[in-house]
Structures are given as C-alpha cells and as structure tokens.
C-alpha cells in the first residue's frame, strides 16, 4: 500500500544511514564572518563561547549542534580558517569558513516517506502470512516497533487538528481481516461443507479455532495500537472484539452459514437425546463455547434450541404415555436427569437450563397430569410399595403447581386400602397387625418418597381416621360399635402376655427405625424392653385415630383382668408403662378403674400374707390344698356372670376357712366367688412319669371326677355323668372337655374320636400322655373370649353410651334451658366425642326417650328443659 501523503517524522530509533557534507551558513552570529558596519571587530578575549559541559562519551561539538540547531547528530563542525597551532581564543584576521561533515544531501521528508511506506508493506505482508497460517518474514518485535512508530507519526501529524489518524491503521487492519473472512473462510465453507448442518458446523468451528489463533498473532503485532488508541477509543472496539464482531457478522449475520451451523448444534443435541452413536460430545461442547464468545447464544441459538426441545418433549411424552405410570415416571426421570447433565456438561447457560426444565415440566407433567394423578395408577404403585417410583413422581411434581393435587389420590388410596383391611371379617384377628404394617409402609413412603412433607403427613392422618371410624365400614361387623377399638385392645393384650416373641417379624425394628428413633430422641430399640415399648407406641398410634374409645376401654379392662388374675403378664414394667401411656393420652378418668385393679392386686397379696400367717398360727398350714384368693372391688373390675360349679370337698373346706378369716377382719362385707376366673396346678401321674398340669377350675373339677371313680374300679365317664357331677352348664362343659380331650395336650381320651364334643361321648384318663415339659399349660381356653362374651361386651358399651348421651343432653339443657335441635345435637357430639362417636340418629332417639321421661319438652324445632 502506498504511504499516506503526510510527511513522516523522524524514526524513533536511529537516523538515516547515509548523509553528505554540505557548507551551510551558521544560524547565529557566533560563527558568522561578516560584521555589522556599526560594530567593531572583537578581540579574542571579547569572543565568548557558549558554556557547555558535555556528558561522558559526548563531544562538545555534538552538544553545540543541539544548542545551535537541528543538525544531524553525526555532523561535525570544523573551523577551517583557524591557523595551525594558534589558540582558539586568538582568532586571526579575516573571514572564517565552516565545514559540516556527513550532512544529508537528500530530502529528509522523502526519506521518512520511504520508511513508513516500507512499514505499511511489512504489516500488509505480515497479515497475509498470518491469514495463510505462516510465520511472518519480519520478526515480531520489528513489526511491533513499526506499528508503534506509525502510530506516533500519525498522532503527531494530526495533533493540531485534534484528529486521530490512527483510524487509518485500524481501518487498514479491519479491511484486511474482513476481506480474509469473506474470501477465504466463507467461500471455503460454502465449497467444502455441503448441505449437512453438522458438517457446516464442523467447518465453522474449525475456522473459528483458526481465527482465534490468527487473532492472537494479530494482537501481538498490533499490540501498541490496541493498548493506546483502541483502548481509549469510544468509536472502535479493540482488536479481539473487532475479530469476534467480524466473524459473527460475516458468518452468522450476513451469511446463511450461521443458521445452518445452529441447526447443526440442535441436530447434535437431538442425536444425544436419541442415543445416536454419531453424536460427538467435544463438537457440541466447543460449539456452545463458540456461541458464548460470539455473543449469539442468547439471541440466535437459545430460542431455536428451546423450541426444538419443546417439540422433542411433546413427541417423547406422547410415546411414553402409552406405558404404565411406573414406566412413564421412570422415563421422565431419566430424561430430566439427562437434560440437566447435558446443560452442565456442555456449558449451556443457566437461564437456558431453567427454561428447558420449565418446558419439560410443562410438557411432561402438567400436560399429562391426569395420567400422573390417576387414582388407580397411583394406588397400584402404593400397593407395590414402589418407594422409588413414588419419590420420582413426587420430585416430578415438586416444582409444579399440581404437586399438592397428589394428596387426593394418596388419601383415596389410604381410605380404600384401609377399608378393605377393616372390612375383612375372615381375618379379623389379623386386623391390627395388618393396619400396623399398612401404617408402617405409609410412614416409610412419607419419609423416603415425600421427604416428610407436612401435607402428605396430614393427609395420612385424616384418611386413617376416616376409614377407622367410618360407620358404614364398621356395620359389616354388626356390633354397632368400633371393632377396631376392640382389636387394638386384643393386640395390646397379646403383646403384654407374650412379650417380644409375639411381635410379627414384619413389625420388628430395622436399622433405619433405630436410627430414626435415636435421632428423634426416642428410646433405643436395641433391647427387648425398648422394642416392646416401641410396639406399644405403634398400637397407641392407631388408638389415637379411634373416636369410640369406650369400646377399647371395655375390652382392655377385660383383658387386663385376665392377665392380672392369671398372672399372665410378660412384664410388670410393661403393664405399668402402658397404663401411664393411656393416662397421658386419655386422662386420669379413663384409667381410674385400671389403676384400681393394680391396687387390688397389691392389697390381695397383703391379704394372703396375713392369711398364711393365720393358717400357721391355727395349725391349718398342712392342708392338702394351697389356696390363694384375690379380693377384688366390684366397681373397678369387669362384671362376671354367676357360674354353678360343684367344688371338691377339700377345696370347698379351704374356701370356707378363708371366708371365716376374712369376715373376722372385715365385718359387713360380702364375698362373691367367681370360679370361672379361678385356676390351679394339679399333679398327675402317667405311665411315662408325673406332670404338673396348669388348668382352670372347671378343668380341675372334671379331672378330679376321674380320681373319684378310680377308687371304684371304673375307667370311663359319659358326658351326662360329668355334667351332673360338676354342675357345669352345657357350653362351659363342652369347652372344658374339648380342651382336655381334643386339644394339643390330651390328658383325656374321647370315644369316639373327633374334634367336637357330643353328649354321647365317653371319656377316660389318657395314661399314655407324654410331654417334654414337666409343667403343662392346658388352661389357655380360659384366656380366650367366647363369642357370647364378646357380644355382651359390645352391648354393654352400646347401653353405656346411650346413658352417657342422655346424661350429656340433660347437662346441656339444664345449663341452656332452651336450644334448637341442630345446636343441641352439635353440642352433644362435642361433649361425647372423647368417649365415642355418636350417630345423630342415636342422639335423636335419646332425645325422644328424655321427652318421654319428662326431662325435655319440644316446642317446634326447639327443646325446653323441664325442672
């Protein structure tokens, strides 16, 4: 390129290499040979030289040249008129002649123009070498100095006009770069890549990498321009930014190559999503980085990428929705994880990731919410205890507005599955165990799948309480009261009688239960007592759901009585602990009678200690029967019916003796003997050895009858003979004989053989009876509740509930005097809910009964209390 028309300044370093001597006229009178007419010729002493002190290595003549004018540095000034040997301060008469050595003989401006023209040519050649990916012929430091000199020259030349002619150097560089990109890069990509977007992308990325390397070389050459003029320029970008802008404009704005390359990136993502083996991870990663540097990621790429992703999500959801809910959840979870990993691994923008995930949630979840929230499908997952799938479903819905809607199928499943358990009359004995297993599975689901979400915890409680107290469900038992309360009482009875060995394996604590218990500050589950205590707590969790706690109280009291009277409690500490739990849960009024039962047992032990002392003092301690009596207060203990029983003479004598002792201490009291709760130990001799049989009073009386006939040489007794001699009723006798002759421990033989006892059967002692244990328990039947006893208990609870309801009505009306029907019913339900749920129909019936008894009077839709 030809140099500009302006005259260049001197180079910064050095001067022209050649110069010629030339005689010039000095610029001051100091060296002039002419004199003004008015002046006299000075003497040698009058002539004063400029005082100069040259620095080391610099001559005085050199210093003068600086002072006197802008001569070339190498020019020497010589006085040719000075005579040899004469003093410099004694000039001779006549004109003096000065000669300057090495003085330039050519034009200085022309020389500098040649220099800068050469700089322009060198820079142009260097750029062509960079574009050709070759090393410039000139060293980089030479090129750098050339740019520096050129910038200084352009700036100095235009300083008066206050313009920046460095623009010319910048425009020179920009035009060269633009021509290169247009001619070399764009045309090369058009000619070699074809129509395949991915191939076009590869070419665009390839030349982008080359261009970045070329920009680095260009910056090193034009660094002075970059750091001085462009750094402070408001109108021009720096070289690196200029290169980025040119590449963006030439390939992505002015050309269709950029659009094709963006399509290639989207195609790469699609290949990755579909598992295409032709996917190139490094190509995608480097392409996304290129878009970020070119600053076209957000404006050009992101909208197209999100649109293509939305289309893919719709296609994916349509295909996967035909599968089961479990498969759909798994597929969605896998897709979302892959999208998240892709955004991180390939440097997608965080905003893109957020919008991408929002699009996926909108399409996959909100668009298919009916499938995800289908009660039948969710119930199937819960039935299968698919914690992972439910957790994935919960996580899918977590960021969506429909997450709370999952609570509806969750509660519906609990109500339905719970009702099936409670309604199963054939497996009534397993009800509580199944409910506890069900509750345990649901708790694990809330903990592991729903992350202890309060909404699902509350939903669990509400649904549990609904099916446990649903009167329509309970009607299948035809008891009129809570069957669940009865079964919970019986389950607790099983735990307190049998201890840890009676706990089903499915309910035992695992390591996670122990960890959660310790973190919650609960008792450790590492020992038997703590494990039993934990199982009792679980049973109480069910108990809390029951509205009809009066049913539980009635059956718990009966079972407690059997455990206390027959000494069948596995742990006295567990009994006391359970009583404390009930008191804390329901109040002291609920446990008042239960506490009295424990006190009666303690008083009975003291009473028997006094009786034993009495026997020793009266000499009756050698009696063949060792009698132990429990004195119970009738008000605290369950009501037991009268049972006729013909006791053996020796037992009757001991009972009579105890009555005398007791009445001697407590006058005015009457003892009523309850033989149906009595039990005893009988010694029996068999062919294989002696045994101790733990039997009920009924069983002992029957066995003693065979002792009586043995002395008469008889062996068999008929059913009628046993009934007449024992005095037992038909039902009690059948159960007693069945336990002795048809159970596991058959100490009697029955003819004919069979599981049922008939009135035509005959019985004899089974002398061949054997058992590995010395003491054999045969009185388990005594611990079992009969069907008649169960019905009687439910009926008693129903009657008591009617009396409590009527009492509540009277209390309310006595204080209010007048109330509407709706308000009265609501108040009665509120006051009686702690004892048991009362149906509004039952309340209305009790109101009618009180009207008949003249406690209330109806006035339209209101009631008035009659004093």
Automatic annotation (TrEMBL):
<dbReference type="InterPro" id="IPR016158">
    <property type="entry name" value="Cullin_homology"/>
</dbReference>
<comment type="similarity">
    <text>Belongs to the cullin family.</text>
</comment>
<dbReference type="InterPro" id="IPR036317">
    <property type="entry name" value="Cullin_homology_sf"/>
</dbReference>
<keyword id="KW-1017">Isopeptide bond</keyword>
<dbReference type="InterPro" id="IPR019559">
    <property type="entry name" value="Cullin_neddylation_domain"/>
</dbReference>
<dbReference type="GO" id="GO:0006511">
    <property type="term" value="P:ubiquitin-dependent protein catabolic process"/>
</dbReference>
<dbReference type="InterPro" id="IPR001373">
    <property type="entry name" value="Cullin_N"/>
</dbReference>
<dbReference type="InterPro" id="IPR036388">
    <property type="entry name" value="WH-like_DNA-bd_sf"/>
</dbReference>
<dbReference type="Pfam" id="PF00888">
    <property type="entry name" value="Cullin"/>
</dbReference>
<dbReference type="GO" id="GO:0031625">
    <property type="term" value="F:ubiquitin protein ligase binding"/>
</dbReference>
<dbReference type="InterPro" id="IPR016159">
    <property type="entry name" value="Cullin_repeat-like_dom_sf"/>
</dbReference>
<dbReference type="Pfam" id="PF26557">
    <property type="entry name" value="Cullin_AB"/>
</dbReference>
<feature type="region of interest" description="Disordered">
    <location>
        <begin position="1"/>
        <end position="73"/>
    </location>
</feature>
<dbReference type="InterPro" id="IPR036390">
    <property type="entry name" value="WH_DNA-bd_sf"/>
</dbReference>
<protein>
    <recommendedName>
        <fullName>Cullin family profile domain-containing protein</fullName>
    </recommendedName>
</protein>
<feature type="domain" description="Cullin family profile">
    <location>
        <begin position="483"/>
        <end position="741"/>
    </location>
</feature>
<dbReference type="InterPro" id="IPR045093">
    <property type="entry name" value="Cullin"/>
</dbReference>
<dbReference type="InterPro" id="IPR059120">
    <property type="entry name" value="Cullin-like_AB"/>
</dbReference>
<dbReference type="Pfam" id="PF10557">
    <property type="entry name" value="Cullin_Nedd8"/>
</dbReference>
<keyword id="KW-0832">Ubl conjugation</keyword>
């Amino acid at each position: 390129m030809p140099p500009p028309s302006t005259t260049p300044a001197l180079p910064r370093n050095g001067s022209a290499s050649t110069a010629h001597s030339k005689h010039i006229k000095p610029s001051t009178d100091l060296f002039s040979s002419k004199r003004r007419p008015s002046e006299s010729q000075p003497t040698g002493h009058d002539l004063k030289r400029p005082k100069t002190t040259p620095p080391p290595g610099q001559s005085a003549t050199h210093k003068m040249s600086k002072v006197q004018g802008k001569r070339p540095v190498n020019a020497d000034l010589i006085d040719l008129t000075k005579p040899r040997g004469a003093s410099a301060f004694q000039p001779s008469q006549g004109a003096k002649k000065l000669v300057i050595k090495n003085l330039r003989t050519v034009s200085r401006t022309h020389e500098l123009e040649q220099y800068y023209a050469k700089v322009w040519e060198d820079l142009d050649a260097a750029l062509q070498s960079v574009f050709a990916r070759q090393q410039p012929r000139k060293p980089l430091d030479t090129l750098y100095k050339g740019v520096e000199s050129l910038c200084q020259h352009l700036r100095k030349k235009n300083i008066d006009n206050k313009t920046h002619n460095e623009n010319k150097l910048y425009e020179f560089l920009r035009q060269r770069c633009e021509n290169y990109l247009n001619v070399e890069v764009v045309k090369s990509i058009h000619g070699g890549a074809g129509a395949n977007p991915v191939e076009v992308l590869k070419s665009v990325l390839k030349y982008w990498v080359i261009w970045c390397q070329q920009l680095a070389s260009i910056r090193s050459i034009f660094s002075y321009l970059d750091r001085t003029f462009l750094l402070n320029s408001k109108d021009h970008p720096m070289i690196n930014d200029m290169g980025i802008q040119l590449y963006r404009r030439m390939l992505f704005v002015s050309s269709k190559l950029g659009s094709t390359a963006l399509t290639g990136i989207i195609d790469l993502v699609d290949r990755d999503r579909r598992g295409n083996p032709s996917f190139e991870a490094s190509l995608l990663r480097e392409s996304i980085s290129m878009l970020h540097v070119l600053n076209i990621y957000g404006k050009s790429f992101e909208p197209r990428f999100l649109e293509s992703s939305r289309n893919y999500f719709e296609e994916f959801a349509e295909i996967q929705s035909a599968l089961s809910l479990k498969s759909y959840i798994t597929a969605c979870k896998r897709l979302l994880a892959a999208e998240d990993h892709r955004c991180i691994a390939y440097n997608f923008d965080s905003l893109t990731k957020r919008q991408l995930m929002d699009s996926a949630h909108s399409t996959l979840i909100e668009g298919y919410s009916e499938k995800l929230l289908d009660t039948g499908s969710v119930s199937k997952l819960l039935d299968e205890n698919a914690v992972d799938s439910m957790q994935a479903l919960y996580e899918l819905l977590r960021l969506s507005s429909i997450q709370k809607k999952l609570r509806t199928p969750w509660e519906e499943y609990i109500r339905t599955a719970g009702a099936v358990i409670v309604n199963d009359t054939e497996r009534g004995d397993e009800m509580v165990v199944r409910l506890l297993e069900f509750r345990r599975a649901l708790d694990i689901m809330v903990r592991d799948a729903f992350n202890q979400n309060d909404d699902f915890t509350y939903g669990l409680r509400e649904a549990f309480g609904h099916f446990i107290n649903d009167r329509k469900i309970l009607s299948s038992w035809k008891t009129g009261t809570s069957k669940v309360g009865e079964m919970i009482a019986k389950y607790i009875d099983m735990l307190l009688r049998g201890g840890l060995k009676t706990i089903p394996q499915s309910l035992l604590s695992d390591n996670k239960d122990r960890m959660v218990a310790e973190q919650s500050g609960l008792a450790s589950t590492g020992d038997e007592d703590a494990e039993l205590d934990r199982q009792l707590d679980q049973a109480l969790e069910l108990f809390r759901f029951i509205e009809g706690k009066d049913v539980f109280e009635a059956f718990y009291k009966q079972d407690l009585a059997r455990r206390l009277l027959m000494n069948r409690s596995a742990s006295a500490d567990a009994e006391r602990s359970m009583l404390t739990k009930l008191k804390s849960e329901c109040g002291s009024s609920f446990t008042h009678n239960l506490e009295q039962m424990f006190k009666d047992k303690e008083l009975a032990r003291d009473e028997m200690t006094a009786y034993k002392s009495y026997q020793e003092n009266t000499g009756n301690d050698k009696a063949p029967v060792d009698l132990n009596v429990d004195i119970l207060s009738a008000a605290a203990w369950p009501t037991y019916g009268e049972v006729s029983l013909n006791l053996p003479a020796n037992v009757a004598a001991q009972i009579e003796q105890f009555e005398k002792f007791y009445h001697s201490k407590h006058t005015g009291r009457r003892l009523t003997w309850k033989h149906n709760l009595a039990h005893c130990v009988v010694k029996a001799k068999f062919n294989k050895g002696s045994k101790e049989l733990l039997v009920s009073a009924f069983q002992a009386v029957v066995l003693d009858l065979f002792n009586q006939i043995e002395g008469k040489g008889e062996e068999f007794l008929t059913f009628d003979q046993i009934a007449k001699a024992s005095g037992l009723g038909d039902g009690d006798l059948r159960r007693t004989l069945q336990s002795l002759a048809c159970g596991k421990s058959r100490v009697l033989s029955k003819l004919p053989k069979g599981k049922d006892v008939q009135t035509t059967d005959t019985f004899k002692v089974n002398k061949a009876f054997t058992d590995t244990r010395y003491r054999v328990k045969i009185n388990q039947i005594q611990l079992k509740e009969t069907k008649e006893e169960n019905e009687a208990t439910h009926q008693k609870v129903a009657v008591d509930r009617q009396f409590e309801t009527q009492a509540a009505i009277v209390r309310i009306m006595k204080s209010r005097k007048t109330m509407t029907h709706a308000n009265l019913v609501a108040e009665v339900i509120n006051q009686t809910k702690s004892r048991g749920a009362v149906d509004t129909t039952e309340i209305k019936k009790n109101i009618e009964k009180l009207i008949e008894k003249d406690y209330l009077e109806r006035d339209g839709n209101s009631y008035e209390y009659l004093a």
